[in-house]
Amino acid sequence: MKKKLFLVSCCAPCAVAVIEKLNNEGRDFKVIFFNPNIHPEEEYIKRRDEQKAVCEKFGVEFIELLYEPKGWFESIRGLEDEEERGKRCSVCFYYRIKKVMEFAKECGDDIEVASVLGVSRWKDLKQVNEAGYKASFDTGIDYVEVEGRKGGMQERRNTLIKEMGLYNQDYCGCVFSKKNKLC
Ligand code: SF4
C-alpha cells in the first residue's frame, strides 16, 4: 500500500494542477504550507489564503505550519546577496522541506513528502530535488518527486490559473528575490 503523502506547497498557482492530478488519482494526501520565506506578511497571508481556498475546492486537507520568518532569516544568513537559483535557494528549499519532514515524523510512520517548489519554470527543479533528498537523508522520511511540468502539466497549470482566477505573483517570495521578479 502506498504511503500517505504530504505535499509541500509554496502557492496555489504552482500546486493547483498537481493537487488536481493527485486528487483524480485518488491519492491520500494533504497540502502542507510552510513558507517563512515569504515577505511581507500580507503577501504570505494572501498566498496562504488562496492555497487554502484551492484545497477546499478540491476537498483536500490543508495544514499551515507556523509562520516563523526569524528562523528562516537565520538559516540563510550570509547568503543574502546570492542570485536566485544560487546557494540561498538551496538552503531555503532544504529548510522548508526538512521542516515538513520533521512534522511528518510526528504524524506517523507511513508518510512520504513531495513538493511543488520546483514547478515554476523559473525554478531549478534539480536544485529542489537535491534539497529534498538531502532533507530525506537527514530525517529518514522518504522524498518523492511529483511531475508538475511535463506531460501537459504546465499547460493544465496555466488553464487552471486562468479558470480559477488565481493570483499569480511576480516574485518568488523573499525580500531578496523581489528585485529579480522571477516566479
Ligand atoms: S528566491 Fe525563493 S527559493 Fe530563493 S531564497 Fe528567496 S524565497 Fe527561497
Cα-atom radius of gyration: 15 Å
Strand order of the largest sheet: 3-2-1-4
Assign an overall shape.
globular
The level-1 CATH class: Alpha Beta
Brief account:
The protein has helices at 12-24, 41-58, 69-75, 87-107, 125-139, 153-164; strands spanning 4-9, 29-33, 61-64, 111-115. With 183 residues, it is α/β, with parallel strands linked by helices.
Please describe the topology of this protein:
Layout: E1 4-9, H1 12-24, E2 29-33, H2 41-58, E3 61-64, H3 69-75, H4 87-107, E4 111-115, H5 125-139, H6 153-164
Parallel strand pairs: 1-2, 1-4, 2-3
Helix pairs in contact: 1-2, 1-6, 4-5
Bound molecules: iron/sulfur cluster (SF4).
Care to describe what's here?
With 183 residues, the chain is α/β, with parallel strands linked by helices. The protein has one domain (4-180): Rossmann fold (3-Layer(aba) Sandwich). It is 47% helix and 11% strand. The protein is built from six helices and four strands, in the order βαβαβααβαα. The protein has a four-stranded parallel beta sheet, with helices on both faces. Strand 2 (29-33), helix 2 and strand 3 form a beta-alpha-beta unit. Helix 1 (12-24) crosses helix 6. 37% of the residues are buried. Bound molecules: iron/sulfur cluster. Iron/sulfur cluster binds next to helix 4.
